[in-house]
Amino acid sequence: MAIEDAKWYVIHTYSGYEAMVKDSLEKLIENNNLQENIFEIQIPTEETLEEKANGKKKVVERKKFPCYVFLKMILTNDLWYLITNTRGVTGFVGPMGRPLPLTEEEVARNGLEHPKNIQVDFIPGDNVQIVSGPLESFIGKVVSLNESAQKVLVNVEMFGRNTDVEVEFIQVKKVNAEIPEGK
Predict the structure, then answer these.
(1) How far apart are the two ends of the chain, measured CA to CA in Å?
(2) What is the pLDDT of residue 93?
(3) DSSP class per residue in the chain
(4) What is the pLDDT of residue 183?
(5) How many CB atoms are located within 10 Å of the residue 168 CB?
(6) What are the structural domain ranges in the chain?
């Protein structure tokens, strides 16, 4: 069996146990040599703007799906038993607790798999627009590129001052417009 045969499954956890479950599963994989069956474990997150009590706004990272952990794996009965008996796991998402794999459309919609090595048409100094995420429609200047992480550092004006934000390559597109002075 190969990674091409693997499907994404969702497990339900107790509230606040997502990171502990991920760590436990990673140890389970290592201790039982399950690298050929479980390929990836994700807790999808997103950045949101949050206003603090003092009126200041801050970008914070939140779980997209609290109480859920996503696994890319080749499911077997033994694996089902090991995972459902992991501390903090309440069971698989599916009819009557039986694992139901996500469809390709659900995988894409939830951003579980990103295309590898995206080619970009911008370099440091270029103007770009953020096209998705909490900073959608912000326009800024590219500061630097991180090819290995597929991320770009963009300087945008936020709340009256220039701020560097890191976003993924797929969240940015090059624009030819100049940024107005004072922005």
Answers:
(1) 54
(2) 93
(3) --GGG-EEEEEEE-TT-HHHHHHHHHHHHHHTT-TTTEEEEE--EEEEEEE-TTS-EEEEEEESSTTEEEEEE---HHHHHHHHTSTTEEEESSGGG---PPPHHHHHHTT-S--SS---S--TT-EEEE-SSTTTT-EEEEEEEETTTTEEEEEEEETTEEEEEEEEGGGEEE--SPPPTT-
(4) 46
(5) 16
(6) 3-109, 115-183
Report the amino acid identity of residue 11.
Answer: I
User: Could you read off the pLDDT of 45-97 as tens digits, one per residue?
Assistant: 877 777 888 878 777 888 889 999 999 999 999 999 999 999 999 999 999 87
Q: How far is CA 59 from CA 46, 122, 172, in A?
A: 10, 25, 18
Query: pLDDT by residue (tens digit) across 92-151?
Result: 999 987 899 999 888 877 777 765 667 788 889 999 998 887 888 899 999 998 887 778
Range 115-183 has CATH code 2.30.30.30: yes
Q: In the beta sheet, which residues pair with residue 129? A: 139, 173
In the Cβ-directed half-sphere of 178, how many Cα atoms lie within 13 Å? 3
C-alpha span between 23 and 36 (Å, rounded): 18
3-109 is a CATH 3.40.50.2300 domain? no
pLDDT band at residue 1 under the 50/70/90 scheme:
low
Q: Quick check: 112 and 65 in contact, CB under 8 A?
A: no
